[in-house]
Amino acid sequence: MIGKFIPYTILAVVTGAALWRDAPYATLSLVMLMMAWYTIRMMLTSDAPPDVREERDAKRERLLTSAVGVGMIFVPLITLGTPVFDSAAYSPLPGQVLLGGLTGLAGLYVFWRSHADLGQLWSAHLELREGHTLVTSGIYSRMRHPMYTAIFLIVTAQALLLTNWFAGPAGLVVFTLLYALRIGPEERMLADQFGPEWEAYARRTPRLLPRLRA
Ligand code: SAH
User: Fold this and answer.
1) CATH code at 76?
2) Which of 56, 77, 135, 168 could form a disulfide with 162 if both were Cys (CB 3.0 to 4.6 A apart)?
3) Domain for residue 87, yes or no?
C-alpha cells in the first residue's frame, strides 16, 4: 500500500524543482494531469483482480508498455526536474496551455469512465481473466476503446503542456506505436473469445470516436 504513494512523493519533489526552474502554469497543469490519471487508475483497479486465464504477445506487450511509461512518465519528469532536455525547450503559443488543460480534462473524464465501466477486467497487457465478460455498456456503448481514446487525449495534452520539442510529443509518439501494434491483436483476441457477441458489438460501435446518439 505504502509503495503506491511513492509516485506522489517523486512528483512533489519534481514539481518543486520545476517551479523553481520556470513555466509555472504549464508545469502545474501537467503535474496535476499526471497525478490525476495515476490516481484514477490506482483507485479504480483492484489489488486482486481475477486470475489471468489467457495472455497474448506477452514479451512485445511488456516492451510496448515500458516504452509508453518512458514517453508519458520518465521523459516528462526528467524534462521538468532537470536541465537535460532544456536545449529543446520553446515558449508556448498564446492559448496553448489553456487548450492543453482542456484536452487533459476531457481525457481524464473518459479515462475515469472507462476504468469505472471495465472494472476488474482491466489489464495493462493483452489478457483475458477468469470469468471474463464482454463489456458493452456505459462508455463502452459509445466506442470500443474509450481507454485508448482517453490516453490519446492525455498524451495530446502532454504535447501541449510540455513545451519541449522532444519531450512534449514523446508520449504521443510511443502511445501511437502501442496502439498501432496492439489494436489488431486485441480485437482478434476478443473476437476469438466472444465470437458473434463481439461481431455484433463491433458492427454497432466505433473504435475510438464516440457514437453520439445512443
Ligand atoms: N481497449 C479497451 C480496454 C483497454 S485495457 C479500451 O481502450 O477501453 C486492455 C484489456 O481490456 C484487454 O486485455 C482486454 O482483455 C480487455 N478488453 C478490451 N475491451 C473489452 C471489452 N469490451 N470487454 C471486456 N474486456 C475488454
Assistant:
1) 1.20.120.1630
2) 168
3) yes
39 lines ligand 1 (CB under 6 A): no
Q: Which of 21-25, 27-31, 101-105, 138-142 has the lowest mean pLDDT?
A: 21-25
Domain with 140, as residue range(s), is: 2-204
Domain count, the chain: 1
Q: What pTM, to 2 d.p., does this model score?
A: 0.92
Whole-number pLDDT of residue 214: 59
Confidence of residue 172 (pLDDT cuts 50, 70, 90): very high
- CB 122 near ligand 1, within 6 Å: yes
pLDDT surpasses 90 at 166: yes
Q: How far is the CA of 205 from the centre of ligand 1 (A)?
A: 14
* pLDDT tops 80 at residue 213: no
Q: Is residue 211 part of a domain?
A: no
214 inside domain: no
Q: What's the CA gap between 21 and 202, in Å, rounded? A: 48
Q: Give the Å distance between the CA of 47 and the centre of ligand 1.
A: 18
Residue 112 lies in a domain: yes
- For 172-180, the CB contacts below 8 A with 24+ separation are 172/71, 173/71, 174/67, 174/68, 174/70, 174/71, 174/72, 175/68, 175/71, 175/72, 175/151, 177/64, 177/67, 178/64, 178/65, 178/67, 178/68, 179/148, 179/152
* 134 ligand 1 Cβ < 6 A: yes
User: For the CA atoms of the chain, what is the radius of gyration?
Assistant: 18
